[in-house]
Design goal:
Layout: E1 3-7, H1 16-19, E2 30-36, H2 48-57, E3 62-67, H3 71-74, E4 85-89, H4 96-105, E5 109-114, E6 132-136, H5 151-162, E7 168-172, H6 180-186, E8 190-193, H7 195-198, H8 203-212
Parallel strand pairs: 1-2, 1-8, 2-3, 3-4, 4-5, 5-6, 6-7, 7-8
């Protein structure tokens, strides 16, 4: 059964102290935190202060996604939170291997994200250092987009490149009840869900509905 990482960006940020404690671990596997700097992506979201607040409100593991330029300068800010994953974009750094090694030294799993237009082959040189590949299936930084159709083909290509490496594929963008089954069938093990969870205030129920459609 697929894991669901709940994107807090889609939740009412002014009510996190109420929303986060209600998320249940049998429904929500991870809490996805999109950190945006206004440079790598056009939007600015939040930083380590809000991530720290979320950490204090739940025992659900954090899934921190850094959509920032020069992530080697930002990553250390999140070490103390001990998230399950810290994910950076391969397009945003010239030092991906060194950055991955720094994350691993902290006992944190390494995620590497690639944008829709970035070929999956970009991860070839960093495969031995990765734990997770985050495939963006919308353009990063723009909330509420539809799933890019070539995303399914990219999951297949990524699986070929990963081969026998123990790397989990996570899909982020446009995930909903209409496409979750196909996303799972193609090989994704984690999906990031935002509006599909939080649109009606029933995040736990919606997460379980997504899971029931997967193997």
């Amino acid at each position: 059964m697929i894991q669901v990482s709940a994107s807090i960006l889609a939740a009412p940020l002014t009510s996190l102290s109420t929303v986060i404690p209600k998320l249940k671990q049998n429904a929500i596997d991870l809490i996805h935190l999109d950190v945006m700097d206004g440079n790598f992506v056009p939007q600015i979201s939040f930083g380590e202060a809000l991530c720290k607040e979320v950490k204090s409100l739940t025992k659900i593991p954090l899934d921190i996604h850094l959509m920032v330029n020069n992530p080697e300068k930002e990553v250390p800010k999140y070490f103390a939170l001990k998230p399950q994953y810290i994910t950076f974009h391969i397009e945003a750094t010239n030092f991906p291997i060194r950055l991955a090694e720094e994350i691993k030294k902290q006992g944190i799993k390494v995620g590497v994200a690639i944008n829709p237009s970035t070929p999956a082959s970009r991860i070839n040189t960093i495969l031995p250092y990765m734990d997770l590949l985050l495939l963006m299936t919308v353009e990063p930084g723009f909330y509420g987009q539809n799933f890019i159709k070539t995303g399914l083909e990219k999951i297949n290509r990524a699986k070929e490149i990963i081969g026998s490496y123990p790397i989990v594929i996570e899909v982020d963008g446009g995930v909903n009840l209409n496409n979750i089954e196909r996303i799972s069938e193609f090989g994704a093990k984690i999906v990031v869900a935002g509006s599909a969870l939080f649109h009606d205030g029933k995040a736990n129920e919606n997460a379980l509905k997504l899971k029931k459609l997967t193997k």
